[in-house]
Design brief:
It is found in: Cell membrane; Membrane. Its EC number is 7.2.2.12. Keywords: ATP-binding, Cell membrane, Membrane, Metal-binding, Nucleotide-binding, Transmembrane, Transmembrane helix. It catalyses: Zn(2+)(in) + ATP + H2O = Zn(2+)(out) + ADP + phosphate + H(+). The structure is a single chain. With 677 residues, this protein is an alpha+beta fold. The protein has 5 domains: 48 residues, no CATH class; 252 residues, no CATH class; 92 residues, Calcium-transporting ATPase, cytoplasmic transduction domain A, CATH 2.70.150; 117 residues, 3-Layer(aba) Sandwich (Rossmann fold); 106 residues, Calcium-transporting ATPase, cytoplasmic domain N (3-Layer(aba) Sandwich), CATH 3.40.1110.10. Helix content is 48%, strand content 17%. Strands 13-25-24-23-14-21-22 form a 7-stranded mixed beta sheet, sandwiched between helices. The chain has a 6-stranded antiparallel beta sheet with strand order 4-3-5-12-7-10, with no helix packed on it. It has a 6-stranded antiparallel beta sheet with strand order 15-20-19-18-17-16, with helices on one face. Helix 2 crosses helix 4, helix 3 packs antiparallel against helix 4 and helix 10 packs antiparallel against helix 21. The protein is elongated, with a radius of gyration of 32 Å. The protein starts with 21 loop residues before the first strand and ends in a 6-residue tail after the last helix.
Length: 677
């Protein structure tokens, strides 16, 4: 099977077929196909081994313990340290590191942490052979084994890598939970018969039967029946949602009540849940800008460590008068403690934990950059309809201009809105249906972004949309919040007044965000409607009568004071979502536009999730900075101690890997944080 990912060769990534053994051809410079379960370019491919990673670590640990006991003369051993059991740890844990270093340097031309680790191991082994050749030069190290030091370095590095993979693997549980929701079977209706098929065989417009207490196999619309749908696995909503004919349903949700028939709108590969799984997996493989900085530092630290190691050895011998073995020992120790492993681990472990926790909470983050940028945002710009408000707009009143009646206004309005997906269009069509008014045949429907819609009907141009300023002054009188004017053949037939309610937790969410960032509202609605909604939400600054280009200009102006996050419904806010530094889409679980344009998708339409993901982003950034501080501080102190001979290769390996373990454990705290639950 060819690899379905398309990562650049310099980007570490997890294969999107994770957990499935397959032949992998990726964009890196490996010359042969290889079988893998998880692959990180530039770090060496992981191929099938006769020993599992845990087995290698346990065997290596046992040999190191045995070696330690032998060095303390607690156990008798022949030809020690040449026959040191630590050689097993060097082979099991050290050879993969050396192989990784060779591939990174020769095949990809990259200087990486494994190169420095390999150099340190080789130097420790060389030091042992120098001692064996001249025991008197050992300088008090006659009972020490530097093979043990090399094995310990290899073991601790492999242990640190396993801890990293454990943290990343734990964070992937949110992704695996999504993947487990993908239905496997479906009941296809063919005439009067129902046949079972694979969910992957579903095609658009197929009629599917969904039995009670079973998964819904495809994104679709209910044709017959009504039921309660449990969407908690996908959105986190604890209460099932009532659904009836005409309502949309999503693959992976659970039919909790009655038999229904649905028409599939997409095939399995294009369902919302399939796209969500793909997006989160893609996000796991993308690195944040701060990660690239850490990589850059690592590329400088490796050659600097080698140079400093040589200088330390020369200084100890020529300036301090230390023996050659002691001088070499100090130089080797520098190599061991200087390795930037903790620095390299600092970012990916925290990012993986953050993305995994968000997925578990029903929040999809499309890239590590989005998670990082969100935490830096100084302003949150909210759309109104469908974002701060419920989006469940209702018709409050129809105002007809004589000689036209209410039925004329609704007849032409529903004709123009027949093919529109805007919430107002749905409201008009539903209200007209309740009044038993059917749309007229129409053609040439056009959406006028920021204005409304128009079409050709009965030989006339029909327009439904925003009234101009004069019309608002004439009809509104300060009473109506949201109005749509209906025109046909150049005549104004009348107006439709709407009302929309603020979401239950909107004010609380805004209040929480205002503790660390500003909030503004951008809406295409009129001044009165915008003012009322902004006041109810607790937003002091709002912009009304905004067309799409006006929203872009407003965001551009807001950017002068810092990074801006746009929060919209993913439908008519696409340009703004794309232009902002970070973007969040609300309430469009099955919207392709939401998935494509927003960088963060909140699947449960819950505004309370925004301050939570904002806090999570800040926590991830703080964790990364803390990790970097830990790694740099421990390394600098270790270098000083090594230069003075306080640390040797053995104790230096323990000290150095202590930083790596601290970094991984610090990142793992994100997954266990009650603040983000």
């Amino acid at each position: 099977m060819g690899c379905c990912c398309h990562h650049k060769e310099e980007e570490p990534h997890k294969c999107c077929q994770s957990g499935v053994k397959h032949l992998h051809e990726c964009g890196c410079k490996h010359k042969e196909k290889h079988e893998c379960e998880s692959h990180q370019c530039g770090c060496g491919k992981k191929s099938k081994s006769f020993l599992s990673e845990k087995s290698r670590l346990l065997i290596s640990l046992a040999t190191l313990v045995l070696s330690f006991c032998i060095s303390r003369e607690w156990i008798g051993w022949i030809h020690f340290p040449l026959s040191d059991p630590s050689w097993i740890a060097v082979i099991l844990c050290g050879l993969p590191i050396a192989k990784s270093a060779r591939e990174s340097l020769i095949e990809n031309g990259k200087i990486t942490a494994p190169l420095l680790i390999t150099t340190a191991m080789l130097a420790a082994i060389l030091l042992q052979f120098i001692y064996l050749a001249n025991p008197e030069a050992a300088g008090g190290h006659s009972h020490s084994s530097y093979i043990f030091a090399a094995g310990e370095i290899a073991f601790l590095m492999a242990l640190g890598e396993m801890l990293e993979e454990y943290t990343v693997g734990k964070s992937r549980k949110g992704i695996e939970r999504l993947a487990s929701l993908s239905p496997q079977k479906a009941l296809l209706k063919r005439g009067n018969e129902t046949v079972e098929i694979e969910a992957s065989e579903i095609k658009p417009n197929d009629i599917l039967v969904v039995l009670p207490y079973s998964e819904i196999p495809a994104d679709g619309v209910i044709l017959e029946g009504s039921t309660s749908v449990n969407q908690s696995n996908l959105t986190g909503e604890s209460v099932p949602v009532e659904k009836s004919a005409g309502d949309s349903v999503l693959a992976g949700t659970f039919n909790a009540q009655n038999r229904i028939e649905i028409k599939a709108l997409k095939d399995a590969s294009q369902s919302a849940i399939a796209k969500m799984i793909a997006l989160v997996k893609e996000a796991e493989g993308k690195r944040a800008p701060i990660a690239r900085i850490a990589d850059k530092w690592a590329s400088y630290i490796v050659p600097a460590a080698i140079l400093f190691s040589i200088l330390t050895g020369m200084f100890a011998h020529f300036a301090l008068g230390k023996s050659p073995v002691e001088s070499i020992t100090r130089g080797v120790t520098i190599l061991v403690v200087f390795c930037p492993c903790a620095l390299v681990l600092a970012t990916p472990t925290a990012i993986a934990a953050g993305i995994g926790l968000a997925a578990k909470r029903g929040i999809l983050i499309k890239s590590a950059t989005a998670l990082e940028e969100l935490g830096k945002c100084k302003t949150f710009a909210f759309d109104k309809t469908g974002t701060l408000t419920t989006g469940k707009i209702s018709v409050r009143k129809v105002i007809a201009n004589a000689p036209f009646g209410e039925s004329d206004v609704l007849k032409y309005a529903s004709s123009a809105e027949a093919s529109s997906t805007h919430p107002i269009a749905h409201t008009i069509l539903k209200f007209a249906e309740e009044k038993s008014i059917l749309p007229l045949p129409s053609s040439n429907q056009k959406v006028l972004p920021g204005f409304g819609v128009e079409c050709e009907c009965e030989g006339q141009n029909v327009y439904v949309g925003k009234p101009d300023t004069d019309e608002l002054k004439k009809i509104q009188g300060g009473e109506w919040q949201t109005l749509a004017v209906v025109k046909a053949g150049g005549k104004t037939l009348g107006y439709i007044a709407f009302e929309d309610n603020l979401k239950e937790n909107a004010a609380e969410a805004v209040k929480s965000i205002l503790k660390s960032a500003d909030c503004v509202m951008l809406t295409g609605d009129n001044e009165k409607s915008a003012e009322k909604t902004a006041n109810l939400a607790g937003i002091k600054t709002f912009y009304a009568n905004m067309l799409p280009d006006g929203k872009l200009k407003a965001i551009e102006e807001l950017k002068k004071n810092g990074k801006v996050c746009m929060v919209g419904d993913g439908v008519n806010d696409a340009p703004s979502l794309a232009y902002a530094d970070c973007s969040i889409s609300m309430g469009n679980l099955g919207s392709d536009i939401a998935l494509e344009n927003a960088e963060i998708i909140i699947m449960n339409d819950n505004l309370a999730s925004i301050p939570k993901i904002f806090a999570l982003s800040k926590r991830v950034i703080l964790t990364i900075k803390t990790n970097i501080t830990i790694s740099m501080s421990v390394n600098i102190l270790a270098v000083i101690l090594a230069a003075y001979g306080i640390l040797n290769p053995v104790t230096g390996a323990i000290w150095h890997n202590l930083a790596s373990v601290m970094v991984v454990l610090n990142s793992a705290r994100i997954l266990n944080s009650s603040k983000n639950s």
